[in-house]
Amino acid sequence: MAEKKNKDKGVTTHANSVIKNHMIWSMGAGFIPVPIADFFAVGAIQLDMIRQLCKVYEVDFKETEGKAVITALAGSGFARLGARAVKFIPVIGTAIGGVTLAVLSGASTYAIGEVFKTHFETGGTFLDFDPERLKKYYDEKFEKGKKMAKEMEKTEKVRHDTAEEVVDKMTEEKAAPKVKDFVKQLESITQMKNDGMLTDEEFAVLKKKIIDAQNA
């Protein structure tokens, strides 16, 4: 009995470490200086976190289902807020009502990680994952995650990573090369627009093409 408790404690400690690391990386992605790019990077980091938690709890990882759960839990409110921020604020990471996008990214990742950890610890798998039932728990953890992320900002525990550094940390993320290429393309056309080589209309057209290609 004692051996089982020690093993369970070790598994939980490992899971907490996975969640914390990915939370920090998500906050770093929140500082990516390219509109929209940060949301793709955060999504990739969250998916990698789920993959790592599956390894910890010896659960078969399912990428399609993982993406669906992320969207179901965090996609609606977080994405709408992000869209408004991208539309009105030129620099990602700028405070919105006292809360930065980095904090929101970290909070969302923490909440998703806690949901999966709790589900797996009770013997759950992707087959019996019910986002609707766990949405309230996600919302509770999201609020806790915001407080944790704010403290991390104050104590400077989170470094303002570049997009490339954030993606490089996801060594096992299959989507990493695609995300990295996407970020570089957006950085390139943003620089061209700032240098006067592209009009606002031309920039909008190119950005749409790059985003459409990323989602294809």
How do you describe this structure in short?
It contains 8 helices and no strands.
Question: Can you characterise this structure?
Answer:
The protein is mainly alpha-helical. The chain has one domain (2-215). Helix content is 75%, strand content 0%. It is built from 8 helices and no strands. Residues 2-6 and 79-95 have low confidence and may be disordered.
Features:
mainly alpha, elongated, disordered N terminus, 8 helices, 216 residues
Encode the helix/strand succession as letters. HHHHHHHH
**How large is the radius of gyration?**
18 Å
Helix content: over 70%
State the major sheet: none
Number of strands: 0
The overall average pLDDT, rounded, is 75
Number of helices: 8
Counting helices, strands and paired strands, the structural category is mainly alpha
Strand content: under 5%
Low-pLDDT windows of residues: 2-6, 79-95
Distance between the termini: 50 Å
| Domain unit count | 1
Shape: elongated
